[in-house]
Amino acid sequence: MSEPTLTARLGALALVAPLALFLALFFVWPLASMLRQSVLDPVGSQAFPATAKIASAWDRRSDPPDALKRAFVDDLRAIEDQQLLGDATRRLNSAQNGFRTLMSRTVRALADEPGPIDLVAVDKRWADSRFWRAIADSTHLYTDRYLLAAVDHARNPAGDVESLPAGESANRVILMRTLGIGALVTLACALIGLPYAMLAASVEGWKRQLLLAAVLLPLWTSLLVRTAAWFILLQEKGLINETLMALGLVASPLPLIFNRLGVVIAMTHVLLPFMVLPIYSVLLSIPRNLMPAAASLGAPPWRAFLRVLLPLSLRGVVSGSLLVFMSAIGYYITPALIGGAQDQMISSVIAFYAIGSANWGMAGALGAILLVATLALYAVYGRLSSDPVVSR
Fold it and tell me: Is 147 among the domain residues?
C-alpha cells in the first residue's frame, strides 16, 4: 500500500484543525492562563522598577541598604498611575499588615516634601525590616507565594517554607472539606447508582426506557433550577418534612437544609446520572448467562453477585466514581444555596478571591490545586484501568 500523499496529509490535518483550535482556545489557553496567574506577580516590578534592581542584591537578612530606601522613594514619586499604586499597596498589604495606612501616610509626606526625606520620621514602621522584605519580595516577577498560601504555607524571613499559624488561613481545611464532601457524594451515588443500573439493564422495552428517562431527565434541567427545587423541598415546611410528619415518622421537622446532609442530598441527585450511565453501559456488555451459570454451580445469589457480576461491573463503577468526584469537588452553586457556613467548598473561596478581592493570584493557585488533584485522579484511574482484575 502506497504512503499517503502530501495532499492527503494536509486534508487530514485540515479536518482535525477545528478540533485542535477549539481545544487550544477553550481548554489549553484557560488552563495555561490560570497556572500563569498562580505564579505571576508583576505589580511590584511595574510600580517600583528602581527598587527591584537594588532589591535583587539584598540578602533579606541584613538591614535594608540606604540605596534601597532612596530608590523606593524615587519610585513612589515617579508613580503617576493611581491604579497601579493602589494595586501595589494591596499587594504589599496582603504580605504585611499595615501597609495600607503606611503607604498613604508616606505618599502624602512625599507630596509635601519634594527633597530628601527620612522615612522613619514619617512613620516608625519604616524601621522594621519586615516591611522592606515585603517590598523586596513584591518586586519579583514570579513567586511561589500564592501556591504556598493555597495550602496554608509561607516563607519565613530566612526563606524557608513553614506552616502558617493556626487561624491565619483556612484554605487547607476547606480543601480537605471539599475532598470529603466529594467522597461522600461519590459514595452515595455509587450506592444508589449500581442497583439502579442493574435494574435498568435487567429489564427491556418501555420499562428500560422509563428508568433511563428518569435518570436523564435532570440533565435537561438547569443546575440552578434543580438546586432551587431542593432548596424548597428541604426546608422545615418543605414537602419532605411535611410528608414525614404527616406519616407520623417524625415529630418535628428534620434539619435538612443549611447543613452537610442537604448538600450531599442535592449534589447526589444532580450527579447521579454520571454514575448510572457508565455502570449501565458496562452491564450491557456482560453476558446474561453468567449469573444462571453461577447458580447452576451452586452459588447463592449473593455469592454470584460478589464473585461474578460485581467484579465485571467494577470498571463502570470506577469510571462513574471518577466522573462524579471530579465534578463534585468543583461545585459552587449547590453548596452556596443549600449548605451552611461550614459546608462551603473550595470553589466558593476561588470565587471570593476572583470577584470579591480581585486577587487573581490566589484564585489561580487554588484552581491549580484542583487541577493537580484532578490529574492525580486521572493517573489513579489509568492505573486501575490497567489492572487485569478491573479491566477484564
Answer: no
